[in-house]
Structure formats: structure tokens, C-alpha cells
Amino acid sequence: MKPSGKRAYLLLATLILAGPTAAFDLDSDAPIRVSADSARLDDAEGIAVYNGDVELMQGNTQLNAERLVLYRDQQGLSRVEASGEPARYRQPAREGEAMTDARARNITWSAADNQLTFERQAIIEQGNNVFRGDVIHYDTVSRVVTAEGGTPSEESSGRVEMVIQPRGAGNPTDE
């Protein structure tokens, strides 16, 4: 790998790894709180469906959507599916890192797969760095990010795009 390619990969890893890794921390003592215009809980099936201006909070991590479905099993929360125009995931900055702000029409978190998936017009921003794709997968255990382009449209080139700011461009990750 060329030095510039290696640097781009490391910056991409910093961009993605710094944010979604703590998506919904099941080991956290912080409760997950959900508010919405309406909700339906099927305790026997372990499914809760929230509709209308949904806000999920765990600590300072926030997920906003038009619709949110939570799945529970014997171990607790197993899957989160959010959709909106767009759904939005925000995780506050940690020491030396910028806030993570991710948007997509569909955001899914799976405990079994240890994966966050952002689908349809996915954008992840951290500081001035930006990563776009039609589908972005993040494996929270192996820390591998994969992205796929989509069909070109008026809104998108259909290609995976990344904007990485040079060092010293005011990014908190540069310090």
C-alpha cells in the first residue's frame, strides 16, 4: 500500500472507528430511553415499534427517526432498525475526536452480527471528514468498514466518496 493510500485508510479508520463503535453500548449502565408520538409493545414477541418524531437516547448517544423498531431477546436488546428522511445517529465527541454525525434513510444495529449498517444515501461525518455511500457496513468487533455505491441519480454519483481533511485543517483528531 502506498504511503498516501495507507494514510487515507488510517484516516478513514479514525473517521469511522471513533464514532459508531459505541453505538448502543449494552455493557453501559446508562438506560436506553425512547420517546415518540406513538408506540406499540408486543412483549410476547419482544418487539417495540415507535412512530413519529422518534428519539432514542443512551447517555449522550442519540438516534432520531420517523420509525424505530427495537427487538429484544433473552439477553436484552438485540437489534435496532431506524428509518427516516433521513434517520440520524449522533455520538458526542470523545477526547481528541470530533462528534460523529451519521445520516441514512435506514440505520440498523445488530448485536448478533456486531454490525452497524447505514443504507440509502448514507453519510458519516466526523469533524470536516466525510464518508458517503449507498450502503456502509461497520463491524464493531473486527473494526472493518465496507461501503458500496449505488445506482447514479440526481442526488448521488452512485460511487463511494470520501473527503479527508489534511492534518492541521482544524480537525480535533489532528491534535
From TrEMBL:
Q: Which GO terms describe its biological process?
A: Gram-negative-bacterium-type cell outer membrane assembly; lipopolysaccharide transport
Q: Which residues form the signal peptide?
A: 1-23
GO CC annotation terms, alphabetical? cell outer membrane; outer membrane-bounded periplasmic space
The record's section on InterPro entries has: LPS_export_LptA (IPR052037), LptA (IPR014340), OstA-like_N (IPR005653)
Location (main, coarse): periplasm
One GO MF term on file is: lipopolysaccharide binding
Task: Answer whether the UniProt record assigns the keyword Transport to this protein.
Answer: yes
Instruction: Extract the Pfam families matched here.
Output: LptD_N
* Keyword Oxidoreductase assigned: no
Keywords per UniProt? Periplasm, Signal, Transport
Cellular localisation: Periplasm
Q: Where is this region: Disordered?
A: 148-175
**Organic solvent tolerance-like N-terminal domain segment(s):** 34-142
Which HAMAP family is this protein grouped with? LPS_assembly_LptA (MF_01914)
Indicate the family of this protein.
Belongs to the LptA family.
Q: What does this protein do?
A: Involved in the assembly of lipopolysaccharide (LPS). Required for the translocation of LPS from the inner membrane to the outer membrane. May form a bridge between the inner membrane and the outer membrane, via interactions with LptC and LptD, thereby facilitating LPS transfer across the periplasm.
* Record PANTHER family: LIPOPOLYSACCHARIDE EXPORT SYSTEM PROTEIN LPTA
Task: Give the protein's recorded name.
Answer: Lipopolysaccharide export system protein LptA
